[in-house]
Design goal:
Layout (H helix, E strand, L loop, with lengths): L2 E12 L2 E12 L3 E5 L6 H8 L7 E6 L2 E2 L5 H7 E4 L11 H6 L14 H13 L15 H14 L4 E5 L7 H18 L2 E5 L3 H7 L2 E6 L2 E6 L1 H4 L2 H7 L3 E6 L6 E6 L1
Parallel strand pairs: 3-8, 3-9, 6-7, 7-8
Antiparallel strand pairs: 1-2, 1-4, 4-5, 9-10, 11-12
């Protein structure tokens, strides 16, 4: 299996206080990997460190074999796109203008937007079903539409890797599934490697090829959903009792928690 991002002995946190310690991770190329774990386990901090938003206390992160923290920012932005939690667009900005920001890593200071940029923007809007909303202002859209707009901007970066921190937060069930189906479509049709944090375990199972369980700042388990989702994992990492059954349509594990 090919791995596009690897982390070795990674420790990071805030103000010198570690949130997670000695993490070793390998992100499979061309797959969807999801970090799961209870609140405060360190998932989002791991994602931020692996995408270079946080400088590690120790350890390393390599992107395509090179240290991500020593690579020029522009090169990183051409290889990896990140959608953090709680993204806010400037007031009055249109979807099209937002997506255009995704082309900044390729822009020459002396040149404006090129014909190639415009073609990629059209492609990103089309890929996320946002073409008809291109001239609408972001703050006039629903939560699901806004999230698709942000994903279109990330696609316009033309990176091979897309990081998302809780992309379905605050969305209703219909829009959650819409976003996750879009990410699966991009993964399958465009070959985009997706790395995300999700809280809904059943969604993580349904839409992921690879799961990483984080417990108290440590990697607890990793593997396919069938390998990772066990009653022991749910009991020890999430502190819940649950039955695991096979989904009657998809054939994947489904968690049924109980008191």
């Amino acid at each position: 299996m090919n791995f596009c991002i690897t982390a070795e002995n990674l420790t990071a946190g805030y103000n010198g206080i570690p949130v997670f310690r000695d993490i070793d991770l390998k992100i499979p190329s061309g797959k969807i990997t999801t970090l799961i774990g209870s609140n405060g386990s360190g998932k989002s901090t791991i994602l931020k460190t692996m995408s270079r938003l946080i400088i590690p206390i120790c350890g390393s992160v390599c992107l395509d074999g090179e240290s991500i923290h020593s690579m020029p920012t522009k090169i990183v932005a051409q290889k990896l796109a990140l959608l953090p939690q709680g993204t806010q667009a400037p007031t009055g900005i249109t979807v099209s203008d937002l997506v255009e920001y995704g082309r900044f890593p390729y822009r020459n200071k002396l040149m404006g937007i090129t014909a190639e940029d415009r073609e990629i923007i059209r492609w990103a809007l089309s890929s996320t079903n946002m073409t008809e909303l291109a001239h609408r202002e972001m703050d006039q859209l629903s939560g699901g539409q806004r999230q698709r707009g942000w994903i279109a901007m990330a696609l316009a970066q033309k990176t091979g890797v897309l990081f998302l921190d809780e992309p379905t937060t605050y969305l209703d069930i219909s829009h959650q599934l819409d976003i996750l189906q879009l990410l699966r479509k991009l993964n399958m049709e465009q070959g985009v490697t997706v790395v995300m944090v999700l809280h809904d375990l059943n969604h993580a199972i349904m839409f992921s090829d690879y799961l990483v369980t984080i417990k108290n700042g440590k990697k607890y388990s990793s593997g396919t959903p069938e390998e990772v989702i066990t009653t022991r994992t749910l009991r020890e990492a999430f502190h819940v009792k649950a039955e695991i059954i096979k989904h009657p349509v998809l054939g994947v594990p489904v968690c049924l928690p109980y008191v």
